Amino acid sequence: MPDLKSPRIVQVTINVADLAESITFYRAAFDAVFNEEISSFQFGVWPSEDFFLLTVAHELNEHGKHDGPAGVSRFGLLVDDVDAAHRRAVDAGAIEVSPPADKLWKPRSSCVADPSGNRIDLYQG
């Protein structure tokens, strides 16, 4: 693992209305792999700077209970091409919240909502 220069978020927990629908969406939109054992979508591999877990809240099972937020979540993903990632997410079932746009204070970005209403900010890498 490369030297850590500052803290970096590596896990966010979301609530989903329909797990099967969410698995289909995140796979189609972002090539995320769902790991049932840890109830998480895995981005990148461990150890690497790309490693990130998007964990689905769940009731008590053999791995314990993982509480989610009180409502929907909002998180950001760094992508190679915001316009392409935004289109792919919408094509996979996301609702457009804000189209890709350039801002003076941040990289090109957009926002979509997944099928459960969680907001995903997409940022140009």
From TrEMBL:
The VOC domain, residue ranges: 8-125
UniProt-recorded name of the protein: PhnB protein
InterPro entries to which the protein is assigned, alphabetical: Glyas_Bleomycin-R_OHBP_Dase, Glyas_Fos-R_dOase_dom, VOC_core
Highest taxon of source: Bacteria
Phylogenetic lineage: Bacteria, Bacillati, Actinomycetota, Actinomycetes, Streptosporangiales
